[in-house]
From TrEMBL:
One of its GO terms (molecular function) is aspartate carbamoyltransferase activity. PANTHER family: ASPARTATE CARBAMOYLTRANSFERASE (PTHR45753:SF6), ORNITHINE CARBAMOYLTRANSFERASE, MITOCHONDRIAL (PTHR45753). It comes from the Bacteria. The lineage of its organism: Bacteria, Pseudomonadati, Bdellovibrionota, Bacteriovoracia, Bacteriovoracales. It catalyses: carbamoyl phosphate + L-aspartate = N-carbamoyl-L-aspartate + phosphate + H(+). This is Aspartate carbamoyltransferase. Residues 10-147 form the Aspartate/ornithine carbamoyltransferase carbamoyl-P binding domain. Keywords: Pyrimidine biosynthesis, Transferase. It comes from Halobacteriovorax marinus (strain ATCC BAA-682 / DSM 15412 / SJ). InterPro entries: Asp/Orn_carbamoyltranf_P-bd (IPR006132), Asp/Orn_carbamoylTrfase (IPR006130), Asp/Orn_carbamoylTrfase_sf (IPR036901), Asp_carbamoyltransf (IPR002082), Asp_carbamoyltransf_Asp/Orn-bd (IPR006131). Gene3D superfamilies: Aspartate/ornithine carbamoyltransferase (3.40.50.1370). GO terms for cellular component: cytosol.
């Protein structure tokens, strides 16, 4: 896609035209999912480097890369020169020199990828960085709603749970207003921002208010690995969890999404996961096509400033 960023770190790196283009392309790819792709010059080589644990994101990118007909490399940081003190930038430059066209990176360090935007060592897609953002997850969430004919215009989209540590939550906050949605953040006060001046965002600690106002419910797990002094979550479900019975009692159809992994019995019950209201399984299925669209857009962006700067080479 023309003028697509070479480093996709944040939703803010995309304009609305590019977002719509990716969503439209994902829809087309979904409807011709058995099509094999060919590239005119060479078969692209794409690596994933997950410096933090992942199941859904890593595997869906791997499947997406395979469906596009690209060569896939699973870069193992644990056995790489990163363990010898090499910087991430030098590692990415090495991958570029070896012919790798694009690297999908997950890191536990927030904003680590922002340093690469001015002079990208390689094309990069953020697979989730610390507590900063997870743009591909947010895009596939919106794609899933669109595929289910659920409009976001004028709707209240409630993000419930550990909002301050959720990178996908932060990406959704950037993405949803572009589709006309209002964002309602819900959870214990220690899991929510202290204050917001954004007119598109409101905060509540009341589950009853969520059930009354929300048009779409997006549940987050408590990220125990990111909390310093974590209070017990044993009683979390009593005030902040959601059950199928609660949803069925409403005089409306309330779609429920979850980026996974879900902590069953904490923020969500198993009966709700197995119900008609839950779109989590569709999110996983749609992740393949959305990430195919992102990879294809990234490969076709025509970037010229990848790798070493020209003045770093010897002149003969």
């Amino acid at each position: 896609m023309e003028n697509f960023p070479s480093v996709l770190e944040s939703i803010k790196d995309l304009n609305k035209r590019q977002i719509d283009g990716v969503l439209n392309l994902a829809h087309k790819l979904k409807n011709r999912s058995d099509t094999r792709f060919s590239f005119p010059n060479k078969t692209p080589i794409i690596a994933t480097s997950f410096l933090e644990n992942s199941t859904r994101t890593k595997h869906s990118f791997e499947i997406a890369i395979s469906k596009l007909g690209c060569t896939y490399i699973d870069f193992d940081a644990e056995t790489s020169s990163l363990k010898k003190g090499e910087t991430l930038k030098q590692t990415l430059l090495t991958l570029n020199d070896q012919g790798v066209d694009l690297c999908v990176i997950r890191t536990s360090v927030s904003n680590q990828l922002s340093e690469f935007k001015e002079q990208p060592p390689i094309k990069i897609i953020n697979g989730g960085d610390g507590t900063n953002e997870h743009p591909t997850q947010a895009l596939l969430d919106v794609f899933t709603l669109i595929e289910n004919n659920i409009s976001l215009e004028g709707k209240v989209f409630c993000i419930a749970g550990d909002n301050i540590h959720s990178r996908v939550g932060h990406s959704l906050i950037e993405l949803l207003p572009q589709f006309g949605a209002k964002v309602l953040l819900f959870g214990p006060k220690e899991y929510l921002p202290n204050i917001t001046t954004d007119k598109n965002i409101t905060i509540t600690h009341s589950r009853d208010e969520v059930l009354e106002k929300a048009d779409i419910l997006y549940l987050l797990r408590i990220q125990t690995e990111r909390h310093g002094n974590l209070k017990s979550i044993e009683n979390y479900s009593e005030q902040y969890g959601f059950t199928l019975k609660m949803i069925e009692a409403l005089n409306k159809k309330l779609p429920v999404l979850h980026p996974g992994p879900a902590n069953i019995g904490v923020e969500i019950c198993e009966e709700l996961i197995n119900s008609k209201y839950y779109l989590g399984h569709e999110q996983v299925r749609n992740s393949i096509y959305l990430r195919m669209a992102l990879v294809q857009s990234m490969l076709q962006n025509g970037a010229k400033n990848i790798g070493f700067e020209e003045n770093t080479f010897f002149k003969f």
